[in-house]
Amino acid sequence: MLLNNKIIHQAFLLAALVALFTACSKAPDLSGKWLDQQDKVNGLRLDKEGYAWFVNGDKEAGGERFLREDGKEMQMKYELNTEKSPMWLDLVLVEKATGKEESRRMCIINLLDKNTMELMMGFATRDTKFDKASNGYSLLKREEE
Description:
This protein has 1 helix and 10 strands; from the N terminus they run αββββββββββ. The chain is of the alpha+beta class and 145 residues long. The protein has one domain (27-142): Lipocalin. It has a 10-stranded antiparallel β-sheet with strand order 4-3-2-1-10-9-8-7-6-5, with no helix packed on it. It is globular. The chain starts with a helix and ends with a strand.
């Protein structure tokens, strides 16, 4: 009887650890429209399928399919790496026909709460800290839908 109780106790402990690990390792849901709090016009829209759009007022550029000025059909995707601290969020421009990566904006993000995010967008390199005085810094707030 004592052996069975010990096995049951260990099974519950293992199940609790697995549940805790699964809850901690889930990526945050970033889907939605995120607007810069400085101008409330510019921002990002991210969807659950991994597509991203730049937002400027009522205009959006990016996503699953858009035409570049040269007529090439493109996609803009995002990649999230939650294993990095701060988290990495990359905006990746891909030629749709070939899948070839054309460019990558290397960002870091910090979720202040589920609807507020600091974003530091790098152009040639990835920043490692948030610099509020930099042109690459934005404080974004998710719009309610």
